[in-house]
Design goal:
Length: about 1000
């Protein structure tokens, strides 16, 4: 039976609309829902156990491999996990026939799995096999356990596979093939000894496995387990292998005469004891802005695992970073004490001494040069509350609007383009909308590596739900490979082809007239502005054939909802704001706002880059984008804070660097930002930082920017504090303190409060919730945000009204302009600030890698990631490599007018012609040594993607910079899932409970 794959981010409707009879009693159910869900819901309401089930997991749907959920429906044995509810169906879940079927099914499972729960690291009261043994009250197994002729696979740095414990339920395969859609895992059902395979082979290392952890999370036993768990979770698990084997033998030896009951009771006692030392805390991922949330399991400071369960953005999904890249938390070089420059070195000082220095420097500079001689850079990785306090420190205590955050380096053009046209600079909807769109158009973004969990939703809908996928990018990345149409525009020309597509739609009467008439202003003005953007002009400028542009236009016009996903490939250009505006214009022209499954989705890069700006760390706005030059708004903040506030817009990041070199900016306080490796034109920035009179850098590790600092302050990590983050879908979520701050490090909000109070403020925040209460009081966008409404996995998507109702979908009733209408905004195409020439003849593109974040400041502190991808590399096309005589591993020097870097080559067909791609995972040779100070005309976002370079071959020929164990060498083995029909087709398989021999004899256990 074929069951349609459900949506991952849209809960199924289970509102009762029919009734079924279960064991003679009528119960409410929803027509079409899976029977197992109706039965479980009823059992839980009555305080009973769920129906026995091993392979079924609600977030994935039916697999049908374990057969333990067998019930009678209208007199026939069926699997409850794959049987839709129909009106008046008669269900029997008790009695000998059902009992025999369920026990027969589970006995087959125990043939593949040795129960040694008491000495198993997975014995944490959430092992499905263990719990089902108890639910079925299994005393004995008829089939003896049969080991498989395979060794444990320990080749992956993060998890291991034990074939001897694998029950062949297929959960891991379903997760890999159809949830993560990496399509690595399969099961060789036709083998004499079936097992899970990686790319059709028996070793994880060297396969296409991206270490996302989906398979480990969903494994119902201990066959797949995090290495960080091994020897750490239980009281009896950290013992030598031989001793452990002997203990298992003893357990198995006593099982026949006494049955499983006493043994399971002992394991339950040991599992219960683990609660005394294993702490489970809900947190939110600190990498990209998808907003994955999960539970972190800790034993003292040891991180046992990250367990995704009920996150509203991710559910059971993670990526390699969120699941495994937490080495920075306990890295040996964590900052634990304030450090004061002492010549060319630093000395540890106390917090009181550090505050003395800050008080003296800040006070003197403000007295001598005025408040605008000081500036502040907030972090996109710290919490919303910490962003709010940073801007409050600048404005209310120092008296300057010189406050910004790293959204300046990436996201502000997207925000500007959307604010111009639809009013709010955020995602139009939720990940749930991306999942249901008829068409997803990805422009200048690589979500499979930069937003991998979000990308899984696109990949799943594309694979199973008929979603169309179009990708426009310079480079053939994974989403481009999967696309129905992949187009490769010339660098910095997206605004041209987007406008040409919009014009074609208009000229051919494919636009949404009714929507435009009712909801959009400035149509005639915009129509006139499109006249230059003919197909011929677009083909000439972009290099995209007119026929492909016509295809794109027709796809958008025909789609049942279009979502456009875009990121730094759009924003990091001199015309970034114009391109973002063109995207929104196209969506307005086609009526792709104000409805589910449509809209603009600027994929935010950092975990809280959305929130850092939302909560006021920008030079022109307070929290909620309330303008600092609005007298009414300013008066409100002045009354609440009891101070006079500055009236003029402050300096942004880019302007701060210029002001330092001009001599007007004397003091800079940087929180959680490695400016020297993040801002453009690193040599220019370094010169500026060197000339500051006083520089404070606050971070968790000693960053490259710390080398310029006069004072370094130790901050707590995300697992060491409370607060909230705001994800790319405007989702505000709580993170809770799991462990104490290391050494003398402190949460950023506490440090900021210490500084403010030393400078004369009288702040009395005892918890971040009090800061959020203040934000809600002052900010209409967050009026109803309260910690009590964000408990556990609860979340709110702004705008949040005072009564707590939030906005998963924006623009349901109007647009946030005075007349409620959106606005077409004519654009100006801005050619790239730098184009290739005879001296600098190659175009340099750059970006992140799946396994690393930015320059690797955090990820390189996780040993396993460094094993997989230790080096930075430069992708060179095969044709350019042949022309220049370059081979993989060759060292080259890239030169630009601004600097040079040394890097190794990786010949790759992901790039073409004279376009290069350089990865960001290096603090020693960052790409921004090569980039200019050119910026987006509107927002001053650096034009990182407009870099021309020359390439000089160096004499050294090294090894491949990308080790052969890296997943990029693997070959995926896509299939529709577990392919359970192949199991059913094997000789000897029959539906449990349908043959006379299935009647199991359960021995009586002796009294002990």
């Amino acid at each position: 039976m074929v069951v349609t794959k459900s949506l991952l981010n849209t809960p199924l409707d289970t509102t009762p609309n029919t009734r079924i009879t279960v064991n003679g009693q009528a119960i409410p159910a929803h027509n079409g829902e899976l029977l197992v869900e109706a039965l479980n819901r009823t059992s839980r309401a009555a305080g009973h156990n769920d129906l026995p089930q091993v392979c079924y997991l609600p977030q994935m749907g039916p697999i049908q491999s374990c057969d333990t959920c067998m019930v009678e429906v209208n007199g026939q044995l069926v699997r409850a996990c794959a049987t839709p509810v129909t009106a008046d169906m008669k269900v029997v879940t008790e009695g000998e026939r059902v009992d025999v079927a369920q026990r027969e099914a589970f006995d087959r499972i125990l043939q593949n799995h040795m129960l040694y729960c008491t000495v198993c690291d997975n014995n944490n009261q959430n092992c499905t096999v263990h719990n089902t043994t108890a639910v079925l009250d299994v005393k004995h197994q008829a089939r003896p356990y049969t080991p498989k002729p395979y060794e444990k696979d320990m080749s992956n740095p993060f998890y291991r596979y034990d074939p001897d414990q694998c029950i062949l339920c297929g959960r891991c395969v379903e997760a890999c093939q159809n949830v993560q859609v990496n399509e690595t895992l399969t099961i060789d059902w036709e083998s004499k000894h079936p097992r899970v395979l990686w790319d059709g082979g028996e070793t994880i290392e060297g396969s296409s496995c991206v270490s996302c952890g989906h398979c480990v999370t969903v494994c119902p036993c201990n066959a797949l387990m995090e290495k960080s768990m091994l020897g750490h979770a239980g009281y009896l698990t950290n013992i030598p292998g031989k001793v452990l084997d002997d203990m298992i033998d003893v357990v198995k030896g006593v099982e026949p005469p006494i049955g499983y009951g006493p043994i399971l009771a002992l394991s339950e006692i040991e599992a219960e004891m683990r609660h005394a030392r294993v702490k489970v805390t809900k947190t939110v991922c600190t990498y990209c802005a998808v907003g994955c949330s999960f539970e972190v399991w800790t034993r003292d400071r040891h991180i046992l695992k990250m367990e995704p369960t009920h996150g509203p953005a991710n559910g059971i999904s993670t990526c390699i970073k969120g699941k495994f890249a937490w080495g920075h938390i306990n890295s040996e070089d964590r900052l634990t004490m304030p450090l004061l420059r002492d010549g060319d070195t630093y000395k540890q000082i106390s917090w009181d001494e550090a505050l003395d220095v800050i008080e003296k420097k800040f006070t003197q500079v403000k007295k001598d040069h005025g408040p605008d001689a000081l500036a502040f850079i907030a972090s996109s990785k710290t919490t919303n509350e910490e962003s709010f306090l940073m801007q409050k420190l600048a404005r209310a205590v120092i008296g300057t609007n010189n406050i910004d955050n790293c959204a300046r380096y990436c996201q502000n053009p997207a925000t500007t383009g959307l604010q111009r046209t639809v009013g709010y600079g955020g995602d139009s909807g939720s990940i749930a909308d991306i999942e249901i769109a008829g068409l997803v158009l990805i422009v200048g973004a690589n979500p499979a590596e930069n937003h991998p969990v979000l990308a899984t939703r696109v990949k799943r809908s594309h694979k199973f739900r008929g979603q169309r996928l179009i990708v426009a990018d310079l480079r053939r990345h994974e989403m481009a490979e999967r696309a129905d149409l992949f187009i490769r525009p010339n660098p910095s020309t997206d605004a041209v082809w987007l406008s040409a597509v919009t014009k074609y739609i208009l000229d051919n009467n494919l636009h949404h007239k009714d929507f435009i008439t009712k909801w959009v202003n400035h149509f005639e003005e915009y129509k006139t502005s499109l006249e230059p953007y003919t197909l011929a002009y677009a083909e000439q400028v972009t290099g995209i054939p007119a026929a492909q542009l016509i295809t794109v236009a027709n796809e958008i016009a025909a789609a049942d909802g279009t979502c456009i996903l875009f990121a730094m490939g759009v924003t990091q250009h001199c015309g970034g704001s114009e391109t973002a505006t063109a995207i929104s214009n196209l969506l307005l022209m086609t009526g792709n706002y104000m409805r589910p499954g449509a809209g603009a989705y600027p994929l935010r890069g950092h975990n809280n880059v959305q929130g850092a700006s939302d909560f006021g760390s920008m030079p022109n706005v307070y929290s909620g984008y309330q303008k600092v030059d609005d007298e009414e708004v300013r008066a409100k903040f002045e009354a609440d804070w009891g101070v006079a506030l500055p009236t003029s817009t402050g300096k942004d990041n880019h302007q701060m660097i210029d002001a330092i070199l001009e001599g007007s900016l004397k003091v800079l306080y940087i929180k959680g930002e490695d400016t020297i490796t993040s801002d453009s034109n690193a040599n220019y920035v370094g010169e500026a930082l060197s000339k500051l009179e006083f520089l404070i850098v606050q971070d968790i590790n000693f960053s490259e920017t710390c080398r310029y600092a006069d004072l370094v302050l130790p901050a707590a990590t995300s697992l060491e504090k409370d607060g909230t983050y705001t994800s790319t879908e405007r989702r505000i979520q709580r993170l809770y303190k799991a462990i104490e701050p290391l050494g003398e490090s402190k949460p950023d909000w506490e440090i900021i409060q210490l500084i403010a109070n030393r400078l004369g403020a009288n702040w009395k925040y005892k918890h971040p919730s009090e800061i959020m209460d203040e934000v809600a009081r002052l900010t209409p966008l967050f009026a109803g945000v309260k910690y009590s409404r964000l408990e556990g996995f609860a979340s709110q998507q702004w705008p949040v009204h005072a009564d707590g109702t939030d906005s998963p979908l924006l623009f349901t009733e109007k647009f946030p302009f005075p007349d409620g209408k959106a606005r077409f905004h004519p654009i100006e195409y801005l050619p790239p600030s730098e184009e290739t020439n005879s001296q600098f003849d190659l175009h340099l593109n750059n970006g992140r890698l799946l396994e690393h974040f930015e320059q690797g400041s955090m990820t390189l502190r996780t040993a396993g990631i460094k094993e997989i991808t230790p080096n930075q590399f430069l992708e060179v096309s095969p044709e350019l490599a042949a022309e220049r005589g370059v081979t993989t591993g060759r060292h080259v020097q890239l030169n630009s007018p601004y600097g040079r870097v040394r890097v190794q080559v990786l010949v790759s067909d992901r790039v073409q012609g004279k376009q290069l791609y350089m990865t960001l995972n290096s603090v020693e040779e960052p790409v921004n040594k090569l980039s200019s100070s050119h910026t987006d005309r509107t927002t001053h976002t650096p034009a990182f993607k407009e870099t021309a370079v020359s390439m000089t071959l160096l004499p050294e020929q090294g090894e491949n910079p990308l080790p052969r164990r890296n997943f990029r060498y693997g070959t995926r083995t896509p299939q529709t899932g577990v392919e359970i029909e192949r199991k059913w087709a094997q000789p000897g398989y029959h539906i449990p409970g349908t043959e006379a021999a299935d009647k199991l004899v359960q021995i009586k256990s002796i009294t002990v």
